[in-house]
């Protein structure tokens, strides 16, 4: 119920909310006021009965005494007329006397008629002068009888000093022996003479109360009705009307009429709100015009940037084609040089110096051939033409084969090369040549940056995600934390390889392409490479490759950056599929 009431108040208009809340609080305030006034008025009207009864008690006592003692009959007749007028209005009285006493014949009354009157006689008879003189002493009693239609008031009459003398004079005439035949006890000061009962009709009092109540209720209803009308008119023309004007202006502006402005001239907060609304709208229109101009300028700039991107893309493509073509063209004479240097090294007539020159030619030629092959691989990746030959093979054979080829270098630098491969590994479905190329680049780097007497350790094991993990750990110079990202960029080496920060003063040879090729090959094979290193304590390169290459969703993306083209390649287990693989295929033998 409370939720429905809250929803009804929240979802209605401001006018209805204000009227409902104002009416609710107005009804509560008037109801509380009426109840309080009713209570006070009822008490005032009800207290009229005891006051009237007290006055009547005095008149009855005066009349009774004058009848018994005063010889002036005119005054007695006057008081008698007053009492009769009271009787005609429905007022009655009687003396409730103790059983052992009897008044004169002029004193109306008799013994108690019910238990309440008996109890009152007993209670008032026991009250002493000290009890009657207390502030909180109750010296009267009252009750409603006949279903509330009559009000009875009881007031005790105690004997005073003057009463004692008078009643003793009248004792022989006004008193008789008790019911037992013994003489009645003489009256003393402070004795209870009788309890005077006054009966007043309660109907007029109730009628007066109901009259006041009806008048008060009518005034409350009329006040509420007039207040609601006044508040409705106030809300309608002072609050709702300006708000509706603001809403109409807002809707017109929403539809595109931005030239419209709010017109409110009430010289109050609504006029201030309308002025603020107009200023905000003017500012928004100005900002919109500025944004429109800026958008036009931005569109022109975007056109220029798009043209520049096309130019950069074309230049990048030309660069890649040039690198691929030049690498391919340079390999042919270089392979010839290496081939003839091998022929020269087989001549037995060469002396030691000539033989050393031939070995230098071979060493430099192989280094140059490796650099050309790296550039060629990089060009293939840029162009999206990298060859993939996924086959099943034993990974331990590839690892041992690469270690055997690198062992002469480790023996020359007295480096301890160890291999830790988990036994009984299942065959892996990957490109064997690319996996061998990744391991060869990581192993070459580890040997290059590890000083003499160091160690290089290769570990291969499967992880819980079904990937092959290949780790190459060394005790080399290490990599600084700020260099752990740039070492995977093309033509970049860490600062440990360049003490002065000058690329021309490298302490370690190399083109800076090995790790970038490793990163792109790992991405191409569905894996990743990461590094952990500490300066002076070595590095650990970790390669994670899926145990089985998913060739159905494999995508080859060029490594040339944001301006390179994206090419999708399908892979077959027996042959590679590339748009220009045959022309760019690297020859593994001398003279190709």
What are the SSEs and their pairings?
Layout: H1 2-11, H2 14-46, H3 48-69, H4 73-88, E1 92-96, E2 109-110, H5 115-126, H6 129-132, E3 141-145, E4 150-158, H7 161-169, H8 171-174, E5 192-201, H9 203-254, H10 269-345, H11 352-383, E6 390-393, H12 395-412, E7 416-421, E8 428-431, H13 432-448, E9 455-462, E10 467-474, H14 514-524, E11 528-534, E12 538-546, H15 581-584
Parallel strand pairs: 1-2, 7-9
Antiparallel strand pairs: 1-5, 3-4, 4-5, 6-8, 9-10, 10-12, 11-12
How would you describe what is shown here?
- Mean pLDDT is 75; it is low at 172-182 and 555-592.
- The radius of gyration is 61 Å and the shape is elongated.
- It is α+β, with helices and mostly antiparallel strands and 592 residues long.
- The longest helix has 77 residues, at 269-345.
- The strands form 3 sheets. The chain has a 5-stranded mixed sheet, with helices on both faces.
- It has helices at 2-11, 14-46, 48-69, 73-88, 115-126, 129-132, 161-169, 171-174, 203-254, 269-345, 352-383, 395-412, 432-448, 514-524, 581-584, and strands at 92-96, 109-110, 141-145, 150-158, 192-201, 390-393, 416-421, 428-431, 455-462, 467-474, 528-534, 538-546.
- It has 15 helices and 12 strands.
